[in-house]
Each structure stands twice: as structure tokens, then as C-alpha cells.
Amino acid sequence: MPYRWTDPAATTPEPPLARLRLEPHQSLSPEGFVGFMAATLGFILLPLIAVLGTPILWAILPFFAAAIAGVWFAIHQSRRAAQLTEELTFWPNRLELVRISARGARQDWEANPHWVSLHLHPEGGPVENYLTLKGGGREVELGAFLSPEERAQLHGTLEEKLAQLKGFPGP
Q1: How far apart are CA 143 and CA 149, in angstroms?
Q2: Strand order of the sheet with strand 95-100?
Q3: In this structure, how many other beta carbons lie within 10 angstroms of the beta carbon of residue 109?
Q4: Model's pTM, two decimal places?
């Protein structure tokens, strides 16, 4: 799952009850990236063996180098764009959402959990199963990068956690 519950550390006088961290799924690990680039380089350089020692090699080599650089740049940009995180922290008297974009811009939202409502919009939102939290005078989107099935599952999990926080039995 691209989201996980973490154990809140007691680093503050009032440690949080729970913390939920959401991150986009990344199918290519750093080790996988290195392996993919090595294999791509090997396959691209394989045809160059036929022209070793000829002037044709120097005419073709810049195009092969540009292809390798293009693949590296595209994958690197894709991985950088997936560096965004959302962290939802639960305290008895406060719910806090911190979203850090891929460029490092931080957006904060907080509200009293007693007044927070969770909404799942199966249709009519910008995406299928649009998930929002409403409270503190604002409505914020949660997990835009998750799949519709993951947002529906997260909705059920958060509904239970909010019910516990408010002192009600889960749904």
C-alpha cells in the first residue's frame, strides 16, 4: 500500500495518537534504476561493436549518447515528481494534514477532530472516489495520487480511526 500507519515518536510533550503517511507508489527502486540503465546502455552499445574502429562510430556515437541521456532524464524526472508526501497526524484535540509537494512546497491544514467529516465522492469529483476531509472552515483533498480502490479502502480505515477519536464505536 502506498500509505502506512507509523508509530508516533514521543518527541513532543504531547505525542500524537497516530500518524498516517501517504506516498505515491514507485515501482522502480534506486537499485532497479541502476540495473535498468546498465541494461539499456549495454543493449544500445551492442550494435556499436560492428562499427568499432571506423569513422562511422564517431558519427553515430552522439545519437546513442543522446538516447541514453534522454532515458536517464525522463526516469529521473518521473521519480522526482513522485516525491510528494502527505502526513495525517491524530491528536485527541487536533487533526493535522501536512502535504509536501515534489518541489518542497508545504501546505498545512488542521481542525478539531470532533468537527471533521470524511467524504468519499464516487462520482462528480475530479477523479473517481474523490476523498476529502472537511473541517476548520476548509475542505482538503486526501491521497490524490492513490488509485480509486486505494482511496475507497483508505476511506474505510480513516472512518474507523475518526470514530475512535470522537469516542464512537467504528462503523
Answers
A1: 11
A2: 3-6, 18-22, 85-90, 95-100, 106-111
A3: 17
A4: 0.72
Nearest of 131, 113, 133 to residue 122 by alpha carbon: 131
Task: State the architecture of 3-24+84-166 in CATH terms.
Answer: Roll (2.30)
Strand 95-100, strand 85-90: pairing? antiparallel
* Distance from C-alpha of 135 to C-alpha of 152, rounded to nearest angstrom: 20
Whether residue 8 contacts residue 89, with contact meaning beta carbons closer than 8 Å, is answered with yes
Strands 130-135 and 3-6, bridge-based pairing: unpaired
Helix axes 55-81, 30-45, angle to 10 degrees: 160
Tens of pLDDT, residue by residue over 28-54, are 888 999 999 999 999 988 988 999 899
φ, ψ dihedrals at 116, nearest 5°: -80, 135
